[in-house]
Amino acid sequence: MSVERLVVVGASLAGLRAVEAARRAGYDGELVLVGDEVHAPYDRPPLSKAFLDPDGERGAGRVMELRTAEALRDELRVDLRLGTRATGLDTAAREVLLGDERVPYDALVIATGSVPRWLPGTDPGGPDGPLEGVTQLRTVDDARRVRDALEAGQRIVVVGAGFIGSEVASAARKRGLPVTVVEALDVPLTRSVGAEVGVACVGLHRAAGTDLRLGVGVAGLDEETPDGRRRVRAVRLTDGTTLPADLVVLGIGVRPATDWLEGSGVALHDGDRGVLVDATMATNVPGVWAAGDVAHVENPLFDGEQHRLEHWTNAADHGAAAARHALDPAAAEPVVTVPYFWSDWYGHRLQFVGTPRAEEARVVVDDLATGGGLVVLYRREDRVVGAFVVDLPRVVMKLRRRVLDRGPWEEAVAFATDAGTPASR
After folding, report:
1. Phi, psi torsion values for 298, nearest 5 degrees
2. For residue range 194-211, what is the model confidence (pLDDT) as tens digits?
3. Nearest CA to 57 among 49, 45, 68, 65?
4. How far, in Å, are 128, 167, 197, 209, 296 from residue 367 at the CA level?
5. Per residue in 328-339, pLDDT tens?
6. How far apart are alpha carbons 21 and 176 in whole angstroms?
């Protein structure tokens, strides 16, 4: 059927790239973009990096809009619905539910992303209401809350030693502030990039003076109500320690934002309830496609494995592809991408390409202690499938090419070993 109205639910990067790609492909029909935040699409990665910087470097304290609301309406002719949450999907009638309003679609792109997890008793939407001094770091409003706390020199406890939590700790140490990071695992990041990388990241934390508590969980939060409002006072750990805190930043993972899809007929993952799509970004429901953090996507480069990735490049590439395919399903082709993300910790640039799902992870360069870099390669059978690199940006891009080309393992090891020597940097 011809597409007279394309609806995109989710107005962050994947959703934005979807509407841009639709117009770029020559689509002249109705284009509706729905987003639950009141802000026009903006760049999220800097929120936990440059935005928190203490000085004016790298855009500290500034939000980078990807497109203004005016540009979306005037240049791309988008029916922009900001501050509007999708509440349901009627796939039989081909309608998106926005509260009492029903928005018909001929083709739909789901790009609602993910939402961070809360500790029990801290969800502002829960029965106990907001607990002041506890935040996540997902939106620009969250980032402003963290930045204000840093500028005020508040006592900060980060729960979770993943990438977001570690970036917050890095921002605190850059200001010379004490910060404690609490991690339930004995080695952080083991599940996402492996123990070899986790061990190296522990070294970065400790070299920077961060108080890293490993293998201990949060038993509860102490609170006070000086003016009738709940406010956090301290974090109680499972080892009996109590950490005084003015601000607690939660970095304990996310879940796909798919509550509104339950019962719609769109197939969801049995575990995290993300949207299941094939390699062309198509769901099991005709006319419905999905992209970005919300989607489990088959990747032909890794034997058709399904990956749900929370990466900037993934959201951009898949958002654009989903829109093109939604408008012309007959021309849809599998999307082959090399996953990539980066993070900034304590003046170091951490980069990852490919997949950590491997038979072996080998540290081939380990010179962080002497001011050099780090390279960890991931092997599947006789080819390289992933690489984690610290402070060697030219190396990681060349390894990315090898992952895309299904390059031989031994050649990748030899290349990385040579490229990591002082003479080659």
Report:
1. -70, 130
2. 999 999 999 999 999 999
3. 49
4. 49, 22, 13, 19, 36
5. 999 999 999 999
6. 44
Above pLDDT 90, what percent of the chain?
88
Q: What is the pLDDT of residues 98-137, one digit of tens each?
A: 999 999 999 999 999 999 999 998 999 888 888 999 999 9
More confident residue, 59 or 331: 331
CA distances from 399 to 11, 94, 339, 351 (A): 32, 44, 12, 11
Place of tokens 């850059």: 174
Cα distance between residue 192 and residue 327, in whole Å: 34
Query: What is the C-alpha separation between 349 and 392, in angstroms, rounded?
Result: 8
User: Angle 140-151/163-174 helices, nearest 10 degrees?
Assistant: 30
**Pairing, β 114-116 against β 254-256:** antiparallel
Residue written as token pair 């970095």: 251
Q: Taking each helix axis from N to C terminus, what angle separates 13-24 and 312-327, rounded to the nearest 10 degrees?
A: 40
Tokens of 293: 């953090």
Strands of 179-183's sheet in order across: 134-135, 247-250, 156-159, 179-183, 211-214
- Extract the tokens encoding 136: 């996540």
Measured distance CA(114)–CA(124) in Å, rounded: 17
Q: Note the pLDDT tens digit of each residue in 339-388.
A: 999 999 999 999 999 999 999 999 999 998 888 899 999 999 999 999 99
The Cα-based distances of 363 to 83, 194, 416 in angstroms read 46, 11, 10
Mark out the alpha helices in 175-231 (DSSP H runs).
Answer: 190-193, 195-207
